[in-house]
UniProtKB/TrEMBL annotation, chain A:
Pfam families: zf-Tim10_DDP (PF02953). InterPro entries: Mito_inner_translocase_sub, Tim10-like, Tim10-like_dom_sf. The twin CX3C motif contains 4 conserved Cys residues that form 2 disulfide bonds in the mitochondrial intermembrane space. The keyword Signal does not apply. The keyword Thylakoid does not apply. This is Mitochondrial import inner membrane translocase subunit. One of its GO terms (biological process) is protein transport. Mitochondrial intermembrane chaperone that participates in the import and insertion of some multi-pass transmembrane proteins into the mitochondrial inner membrane. Also required for the transfer of beta-barrel precursors from the TOM complex to the sorting and assembly machinery (SAM complex) of the outer membrane. Acts as a chaperone-like protein that protects the hydrophobic precursors from aggregation and guide them through the mitochondrial intermembrane space. It is found in: Mitochondrion inner membrane. It comes from the Eukaryota.
TrEMBL record, chain B:
One of its GO terms (biological process) is protein insertion into mitochondrial inner membrane. Gene3D superfamilies: Mitochondrial import inner membrane translocase subunit tim13 like domains (1.10.287.810). It is a peripheral membrane protein. Residues 43-104 form the Tim10-like domain. This is Mitochondrial import inner membrane translocase subunit. The keyword Protein transport applies. The twin CX3C motif contains 4 conserved Cys residues that form 2 disulfide bonds in the mitochondrial intermembrane space. It is found in: Mitochondrion inner membrane. Keywords: Chaperone, Disulfide bond, Membrane, Metal-binding, Mitochondrion, Mitochondrion inner membrane, Protein transport, Translocation, Transport, Zinc. It comes from the Eukaryota. Heterohexamer.
């Protein structure tokens, strides 16, 4: 994704669009995280409050997910840079 | 005399203007005078959507394949890390592979369409 072929005014609008989309995506990521961790960790409905075991599990789940997300992002970035042909203008 | 004085004043004004305006905008004086091509914005938006969609798919699929639902510790284990690296690389390779395959088959599909195959004509 190179932005050099757009002029300044277009780049400004595109940057705004990217910010908007990233925010939307972050919210989606968050709701996915909650769903996944709830499904995997919370299975005890004998009590209304979250047990300490469930809380610990949910914390670990969230940490793991965030680290996973970070790692995928790093690899994805490296690989997509490789995908753009070396002859393209930068 | 007055003409020269006017000229003198003009000389004082013009250099100031030249310093304020950037050279590619010249006399327009306003940033928004640059033309924004809506088609370019659409193309950029589509490319961005595709990019983000790909990223989200990789994230979900590699999580399902590499991270088991038993959470013993908050960090990724070495095995999980290696699995994620390989998963991302493989996903991108498969996508490239299938992209090429689709390109080849796209010609076949259009040929079939033109010779009357596919959907029955009585529809």
């Amino acid at each position: 994704m190179d932005f050099q072929r757009y002029n300044q005014a277009e780049q400004a609008q595109i940057a705004q669009m990217i910010e908007h989309k990233q925010m939307k995506d972050f919210l989606r990521l968050y709701s996915n995280l909650v769903q996944r961790c709830f499904n995997d960790c919370v299975n005890d409905f004998t009590t209304k409050s979250v047990t300490s075991k469930e809380e610990a599990c949910v914390n670990k789940c969230a940490d793991k997910f965030l680290k996973h997300s970070e790692r995928v992002g790093a690899r994805f970035g490296e690989l997509s840079q490789q995908m753009t042909p070396p002859g393209s203008p930068q | 005399m007055t003409a020269e004085q006017n000229l003198g004043r003009a000389k004082i004004h013009l250099p100031d203007l030249a310093i304020e305006l950037p050279s590619n905008i010249m006399w327009s004086g306003s940033y928004s005078q640059q033309y924004v091509n809506p088609q370019n914005l659409e193309v950029a938006e589509q490319e961005l959507e595709m990019f983000m969609d790909l990223y989200n798919r990789i994230l979900a699929n590699c999580r399902n394949k590499c991270i088991p639902p038993k959470y013993h510790e908050p960090d990724l284990s070495k095995g999980e890390m290696v699995c994620i690296d390989r998963c991302v690389a493989k996903y991108m390779s498969v996508q490239k592979l299938l992209g090429k395959k689709m390109e080849e088959n796209a010609e076949n599909l259009t040929n079939i369409g033109s010779t009357g195959g596919g959907l029955p004509s009585t529809l």
